[in-house]
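Retry 2 of 3 after timeout on previous attempt. Resubmitting structure tokens to design endpoint.
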């Protein structure tokens, strides 16, 4: 129960941060990505702030032997760069650049009830399902 409550609170704080920074607005994101046109650099400050919090947070949290609500940390161990990683990153970047949504902000933007948000999230879920079927993946997303 405590893990679910902590996940809910973290998700609400994350969603609120996305809404306040306007990362849920595809127009704002596309203006940030339009470096050759009418570039809006304001999201760079959002990303810099997130990077700063992450750097400090990781240093503090990883001093602990284990997380507060789990037996151990679930940190990635792979360090190689392969075609799947590069292809996935490229697909993510192309999708983000074309529509101005990435998964987190798209899900948070569902709260606004916009059809574009619903269509993007539906297409994202279909793409995830297609990947699982096409690759036979049974990997769980979370413990």
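Retry 2 succeeded. Sequence:
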């Amino acid at each position: 129960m405590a893990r679910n409550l902590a996940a809910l609170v973290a998700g609400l704080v994350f969603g609120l941060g996305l809404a306040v920074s306007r990362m849920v607005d595809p127009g704002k994101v596309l203006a940030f990505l339009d470096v050759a046109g009418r570039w809006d650099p304001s999201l760079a400050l959002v990303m810099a702030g997130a990077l700063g919090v992450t750097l400090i947070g990781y240093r503090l949290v990883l001093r602990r032997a284990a997380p507060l609500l789990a037996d151990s940390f679930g940190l990635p161990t792979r360090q190689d760069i392969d075609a799947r990683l590069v292809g996935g990153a490229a697909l993510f970047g192309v999708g983000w650049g074309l529509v101005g949504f990435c998964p987190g902000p798209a899900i948070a933007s569902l709260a606004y009830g916009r059809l574009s948000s619903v269509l993007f999230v539906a297409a994202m879920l279909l793409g995830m399902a297609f990947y699982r079927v096409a690759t036979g993946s049974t990997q769980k997303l979370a413990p």
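Attempt log closed. The chain has one domain: 2-135.
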